[in-house]
Amino acid sequence: MTEVNLAAPHIFIVAVENSSDQLGAGLMTSLRAQSPKVKISGVGGPAMSSKGLKSKFDISGLSILGFFEAVRAYPLVLRRVKETVSAIMKASPDTVVLIDSWGFMIRVSQRLKNAGYKGPIIKYVAPQVWAMREGRARVLAKSNDHVLSIHNFDAPYFEQHGLSVSHIGNPMFDTDYTAGDGRSLRSRLSCENDAPLCAVFFGSRVSEINQLQKPIAAAVDKLSLRYPNMQFVSPVADPMKDKVHDAKNSGTFRQITLVSEAEKADVFKAADVAIACSGTVTTQLASVGVPTVVIYKLKPLSWWFAKRLFKPDYISLVNISADAALMPELLQSEASGENIAAEISEFIDDSHKRQTCSDALRAEARRMKGGDGLASDKAAAQILKLIRA
What we know:
The chain is α/β, with parallel strands linked by helices. It has two domains: 10-169 and 372-388, 3-Layer(aba) Sandwich (Rossmann fold); 177-369, Rossmann fold (3-Layer(aba) Sandwich), CATH 3.40.50. 49% of the residues lie in helices and 14% in strands. Helix 9 links the parallel strand 8 and strand 9 (256-260).
């Protein structure tokens, strides 16, 4: 490590999944606003690339779900970890920011420490030790120097092991998802104003699409028969585009209109209801107040392990925060076409239930945001503060 140039600090950011890539892009914007001469290197996807990052390698293939999927991808993960550590040591940045992705990032931080890296290693988004595997807090403390937490209940789990924590709020709320143009989208889809519109979100991993495409397709078929004028639309992220379009072309999603991820806010605003794979998007939908049916499937053995490790009663963050099923959840065998269609139908047929759910989701989202200011701005300020210290 050379002496830190406080006017032009060098920050290396690592993000290897779509949601992490989005956080990285927001962080890059905030860092440049607060430190105009900052140099940013790293590993990321299309969102960070759009902000000018030249990623050290392509992150596709590193979004992994389930035990067996992880086993198959293990050689690729180890190779990319080695390449990441090598790039960091060669660049000798003032600090390293590792965003989410526990398995990948803990290996990077451990190898950095073993290689003699002296700058602060910052974990952006703490592992959810409140949900499962509390021992990860102790493991993280051995190879990381600070945690940027999105939940105000994270800190005690890590501070007891000597790892400092800053609560920055949930970055999901940095974007105003209510600002979309729903009318314009409906017009482009030739969707009448009184026709129900259902948004569909497949997930950000190939394995999620593989597990959920059949029940989603079955649900859409059933709903189309019940509501002939109902339309279905899905914003598709670039990493998943080929997979989803292949399914569309084969007839699986023949009734779903696919649009770009850039139109996601328009879809939120236009949608009356949504079907969504559990993940980041459910919190976004909550902030707009879209009544949503959450679905999720793992392979049987992965589910067997997850069920014994996971502590909360719900899997979607808005439900965990509220300690109530604001969004109905259908997991494993319950995530059938028939069940999904039944839950969506209740929202369509009962306008009072739909409005009550929408109001409750928006209220809970406001509570989850916690305070004024953008999470990415708070994260950037804390990173720069740690560098200066």
